[in-house]
Model the fold of this input.
Amino acid sequence: MSADSPSHPSPPSHVLLAPDRFPGALTAARAARHLAAGLRRARPDVALVELPVADGGDGTVEAAVTAGWRRVEVEVCGPTGRPVTARLALNGTSAVVELAEASGLRRLPGGRPRPLTASSVGTGQLLAHAVRLGARRIVLGLGGGACTDGGAGLVQGLGGRLLDALGKDLPPGGAALRSLHALDLRGLPDMSGIEVVVAADSAGPLLGRTGAAAVDGPRRGANRDEVRLLDAGLRRWADLAEAAARRAARDLPGAGTAGGVGFAALTFLGATIEPGPALMLDLLGFAEKARGARLVVTGEGVLDTRSLRGSAPVHVARAAARAGAPVVAVAGRRGLTGEQLRKARIQAAYALADIEPDDERRVRRAGPLLEQLTVAIADEWLPRGAP
Done:
């Protein structure tokens, strides 16, 4: 557990509820609340500890706040320039900043993609605010972003200026980067002595067929021609950014993360990149809270072979195994065999689809269905009268 993590000793023989989010249905915190509600009805004598988890995407700040960190709200620019109220989490000199809070897909007005103009400027503003609050270690979650701007907006949000050939500020978004002529970095805060750790899966490089535009552009609504346009803008951005920072980062693993925001973090913040789930479990003090647990319940929207590549529930199961606690999982849909579950250190899995096969109703009633699943969990794993 990191030195700044809050310390909340768990009661003996408790059940630890540590789900990730169910995308489109439940945040991790709401999933934990529904699990708790069901188990309190089924086993009112069992102590429960709620610890929603995250992987660096949507819900990362919320997970830190639920674990005891202080929530700080600040008005910043959303991905289209409209003001939004975004949150960061603070604990002593540590902060958690989340790209999705300021520059996420859920911040797009009407949910309409803006692949060419969406910007990460609000995330830079959140980082600047964390620095002003005295943060010396910042965990930057890079999931759920709406932009493919290479983190150029992040640099602008921190106080840098991106100028065209006439000395005018560039408009936001990745497409405008083709006209980038110069950078003015005099407004950037002093980041010396501040550790920035990116919580994200290590992705590809910034440019090319496996780069930010090619991979993330279509996810953000870009067509084939727009992907080429974005890649050209990112190439221009990389040339000038690396020259200004005197650091080559475009080909590093993770530079292409979150539409290239990883590149800006590596280049201008000297960031390191760590797997999001493992980093967040450490940050939330999971090992301490799992110690002495009689059961850990984790989960996510879909538990399948992709989960085995490192989803939050699989990291939860491994960490719980180290603490000597058995693990069961809940999911909207389950696609793993019993052998695959055992190898992932998960003793059993329960799916909402088993009691509600209709996709639309399952999403709409995910909370009550989770509570219904806890009856089976209690019967099989928490026998009445057991210590």
Remarks:
- The longest strand covers residues 83-91.
- Residues 1-12 have pLDDT under 50 and may be disordered.
